[in-house]
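Predict both folds.
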Amino acid sequence: PLTELITIKPQMIHSSLDQTLKNLILNNRLATDSRQVQPDDVFIAISCANVNSHIQQALEAGTKAIILEEKDQGDWQNRYPLVQFIVVPNARYTLAQIAKALYNDQP
């Protein structure tokens, strides 16, 4: 799983990514495994039957932002107002776009 992205340069980020995502990618570690989240990481919540547990675990670990799908949004923002929640149509697709941007559009 993608748990860390290091030495990311602005020119590596694909123009189709939202500016908020670009800033998060450039300035923070990314994690898809809630057990690996460290303070100030960005957690990408892949939708599954246990997504709420994974989000809770990432929050308890000190994540600064969570990328999640609208159907998983729930009441998280009201409960954790200091955490940035970025709602995307599809978290897996967003993760793929991030990877594509970082690896220069490799297949």
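Second protein follows, with its predicted structure tokens after the sequence.
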Amino acid sequence: IIDIYNSSEKYWSTKLLSIARYGLASVQVDKWIIFAGGDNTNIVVGTVDILNIETQEWMSSSLSEERVFLSGISLGTKAFFAGGNSGGNSYSSIVDIFDVSNMQWT
């Protein structure tokens, strides 16, 4: 569940991710909030849910590798998702970059 606070109207609402998970990374870029990776009951996932905060519409995508406990940061029009654990004792050195200007992974 995602809790969303509308500061101009002063009320809370909720949204559901496409799959329940923990250990994910979330990043805001412009009007987009991007939720990437995570773990769903001991299954590491590469699911990426992308919410347009203006229209409240969802898009979905995938990381290049399933990961949990990854890090996320934004810069300009890009969201960066780096590292994490890809299962067991397997750590990732991958950095996935999503550009909201063209809605593509680079």
